[in-house]
Amino acid sequence: MVSRSRMRTYVKTIRTRPFKDQRPGTSGLRKKVRVFRQPNYLENYIQSIFDVITHLRGGVLVFGGDGRYYNDTAIQIILKMAAANGVSRAIVGHRGMLSTPAASCIIRKHMAAGGIILSASHNPGGPDGDFGIKYNGANGGPVVESVTDAIFANTKSIRTYSIVDAPDIDLSKIGVSRISGMDVEVINSVSDYADLLESLFDFEAIKAMFTGGFSMCFDAMHAVTGPYATEVFIKRIGVDPSQIANATPLPDFGGGIPDPNPTCNRTLFKTMFGDGAPDFGAASDGDGDRNIILGRGVYVSPSDSLAAITANAHLAPGYRDGPCGVARSMATSRAIDRVADKLGVPCFETPTGWKFFGNLLDNGRVTFCGEESAGTGSNHVREKDGLWAILMWLNILAASGKTVRTIMDQLWRSHGRNYYSRHDYEGVETDRAESVMANLKAKLADLPGQTFVNETVSRADSFTYRDPVDGCVSENQGVRVECESGSRFIVRLSGTSTEGATLRLYVERYEGPGGNLNMDPQVALTDIVNIADRIAGIKVTLGRGTPAIIS
Ligand code: G16
User: Fold this and answer.
1) The domain 193-318+380-415 is classified under which CATH number: 3.40.120.10, 3.30.70.660, 2.40.40.10, 3.40.50.80?
2) How far is the CA of 352 from the centre of ligand 1 (A)?
3) Distance in Å, CA 27 to ligand 1 centroid
4) What is the third-level CATH fold of 417-550?
5) What is the pLDDT of residues 458-509, one digit of tens each?
6) What is the rounded distance in angstroms from the CA atom of residue 384 to the CA atom of residue 73?
7) Does residue 426's CB lie within 6 angstroms of at least one atom of ligand 1?
8) In 235-249, which positions are buried (b, 16+ CB within 10 angstroms) versus exposed (e)?
9) Which residues are catalytic?
10) Overall pTM > 0.90
């Protein structure tokens, strides 16, 4: 506990004024760096966390970020505020860095009260880029909406914050120091997490596969995953270092955008579709929770990856019994539903945002969950986990002796294929994006029964989620329009963009096991894309001819 005399000596109470724009989005508070650097902006939000979650006083908290620009400055401020707010022990990643899944692992392993993660995920970094703050609870996962709502409410009335007046803490040395009554333990960021992964997968089988000539290209995109990939792939599995690209984390991600989609990671996609491509390609994002999977000449969409993992996970030692249940976000393709159906396990449909999986995982209702946004994970932590997904794939390939293409062909031949794509209209005017949503919602009641080209609408609604564990209701989670054929489209506004609005159109079409399973998804989806645009008037209303990113 912080002694009163020490508190008097070191704690400063600073007057502040509320900012109006501190509502957390899909994944914490995400803003431009320049917004966070305004005097008191970061401090107000952090103080609001401590004001709302009062049991952090006297508790243990985990701290770390993805190493992006401003991570080093922000973490010093946050640690000094934690000390001033009575946190008894801070567990901090070496150099202030922790991947998001590693932070979740460490919160759980050390039974901490929670953790503060500094990341804007896959968003660009650097002084003109983005920064973000997430608060995760004792289960290691993002807190539920009622808590983020309370934090937001606090930011609107905050008048003071507390911070200790002390020199910066040296986060480059592993060990324990003390700041105004709070122990600061700087830990090796990778070992707990690597141990957890090693307990779930057959590293020996994966090692034997590489020894036998299997080749991989893993791109860490100069983000936080580099040191974890080095530990797991190179040190523990024996992968040749030449198979790991961009493993050194940089504050600006080397000038790239740490989003492993086909547009931001052209190099990997070019490699995997080029002559002499390796057997396996993968990448993760800024904070290491996303993943992308490719085989030689084949891209596995995140929705398909979730389905393939669910169908084959029994090949990994940690998942021998298969899943007890699975979950996907509403916008994710329904490929996993078919796998779950065959396995005889429930499949839950949640809104976008990993926080909605927390209750299902904590309550033992699901083993795997995933999202179309390149997020896949299991009950081993409470965040999506890029390296976990990549190791799961490697384990499946090693245990089955099959290629990525064969795994996918077999999945589609037994379950059919859910052709799927997401079209992102980024940086559009907020008013225009909101008017697409409003116009679409106004049409919903009349859509069922109407035929467009060759598709007849069977259902059209705005998605409302009722959490089966705590009964909480989340409304307006995206508009979905489903057709009798099984095709559907979904439109929603992103909750992670930092400039204007991002409108996402998700399209899906089902082709049965006997159908044409090898089309180019964009060709297969042409009709439903056109129908969506005709109904929602996206291009006209936004004044954009094409989406910025198609994935
Ligand atoms: C976050 C959330 C994910 C969500 C994604 C996209 O991921 O954790 O659950 O799917 O954003 O959200 P939106 O469509 O609202 O932009 P990350 O990796 O950015 O933290």
Assistant:
1) 3.40.120.10
2) 7
3) 6
4) TATA-Binding Protein (3.30.310)
5) 999 999 999 999 999 999 999 999 999 999 999 999 988 888 899 999 999 9
6) 26
7) no
8) ebbebeeebbbbbeb
9) 121
10) yes
